[in-house]
Amino acid sequence: MKSPILALPLLLLSTSLDAQGRGLSGPSSVESELAGDGLTDPQPRSDFPRNIAPGYFAWKDRLAENGLRFNLDYFALGQWSDSELGQGDAAGGLLRFYGAWQATENGSLTFKIENRQAYGEVAPQFFGFDSGALSITGTAFNDSGTLLTNLFWTQRDPEGRWTIQIGQIDVTDFLDVYGLVSPYTAFQNLAFNTNPTINSPNQGLGIAAGAKLGENFYAVGSISDANGDPSEPDFDVFETGETFKSLEIGYTSGGDRIYFDNIHLTFWQSDAAEDGSRAEDKGVAFSAAWFIDNTWMPYIRAGRSEGTAALYERSLSTGLGWYRRNTDLAGIGLNWAEAKGFDDTQFTTEAFYRFNVSPDFQITPSIQYISNPLLSPRSSDVTILGLRARVVF
């Protein structure tokens, strides 16, 4: 057994993003979802649901002025496959309550509680497997029940030079992120979310922090519980010493564009489980994305791992995002992947259009095409149609 000292969720290096102190905030983090991207020029089609509960939203705004910001949102995702295998369809829902309390000038407490449910026999997260593809086609839409995915303290340097987080953290909030990484607002397939070659743990105890390295360079790193279980948060990492570590070095055009204009290299390592359920895993990932004229976002992402726990051993993705002034978003992604234990390769394409009825109500149709699905050698391809909806209160 490792020393408990080595199991301490130590320090993570990261950037302070702007004067409001977003800290370690990718697109799917609480801070980013509360603040918005701050770059696009929204022209909403409707005020729904604000127009049906103006008193409630006015109350929320007053709380925000006093340092407490929060959202309650609900997602529904349905997917349909043309595969001859499995159920043929999957659906699930996701209810989240999340927010941040600005307790001091440079310190805040972030929280997020989720309830994830499948509507039928198969949850969208596992629908790719059910359809014969080695693919997570509905990232985050599983059947895990009630989860504590965030409960951490953030401390920021007054001059924006560093940020530290400690507590129940989600490493995918800041690990290898780019502008289209969020499964709640952009791509649904894991191939285009957090790199599918990274064996990122579930949410658990950890520390995250960071530093700016001059005007444009930054360093991000983490140590967290490799066995995190947000359904039953615990301190077992102090006993087992099994941790996940990451270090990222990156370049950005400016702190307020940290995940829009970004080129970075990420190194990571995850300890083996003492009970033999997980081998040691490690790897490296590369990502480059740039927001051109605040409209177009071309990207290329790659990764390689050496263990057995990540979905893919090697992966290469590229694609394009298109932001419209009313905050609609369209995206297309192409992925090539190799997995341990398979002699062949799998190709995945996803395209989606996020239609913003209002800033708080979105509908996103999508299509995923998987060529040479690895779990179904007799099939040449699988097509999955999806429809995701989100409402925020």
Helix-strand layout with pairing:
Layout lengths: L29 H6 L18 H12 L2 E14 L7 E13 L5 E12 L8 H4 L14 E12 L5 E8 L34 E10 L3 E9 L11 H4 L2 E10 L9 E9 L10 E9 L6 E10 L8 E10 L5 E10 L6 E14 L2 E11 L9 E12 L1
Features:
44% strand; Porin; 393 residues; 16 strands; mainly beta; 16-stranded antiparallel barrel
The CATH first-level class comes to Mainly Beta
Number of domains: 1
The main sheet orders its strands as: 1-2-3-4-5-6-7-8-9-10-11-12-13-14-15-16
- Tally of DSSP helical segments: 4
DSSP helix fraction = under 10%
Helix/strand class: mainly beta
User: Which whole number gives the mean pLDDT?
Assistant: 89
Shape annotation: globular
CATH superfamily: Carbohydrate-selective porin OprB
The CATH architecture would be Beta Barrel
Secondary structure tally: strands: 16
Succession of helices and strands: HHEEEHEEEEHEEEEEEEEE
The biggest sheet, with number of strands, parallel, antiparallel or mixed sense and barrel status, is: 16 strands, antiparallel, barrel
Q: Mind explaining what this structure looks like?
A:
- The protein is mainly beta and 393 residues long.
- It has one domain (4-392): Porin (Beta Barrel).
- 7% of the residues lie in helices and 44% in strands.
- The chain contains four helices and 16 strands.
- It has helices at residues 30-35, 54-65, 127-130, 237-240, and strands at 68-81, 89-101, 107-118, 145-156, 162-169, 204-213, 217-225, 243-252, 262-270, 281-289, 296-305, 314-323, 329-338, 345-358, 361-371, 381-392.
- A hairpin with a 5-residue loop joins strand 2 and strand 3 (107-118).
- The longest helix has 12 residues, at 54-65.
- The model is unreliable at 1-22 (pLDDT under 50).
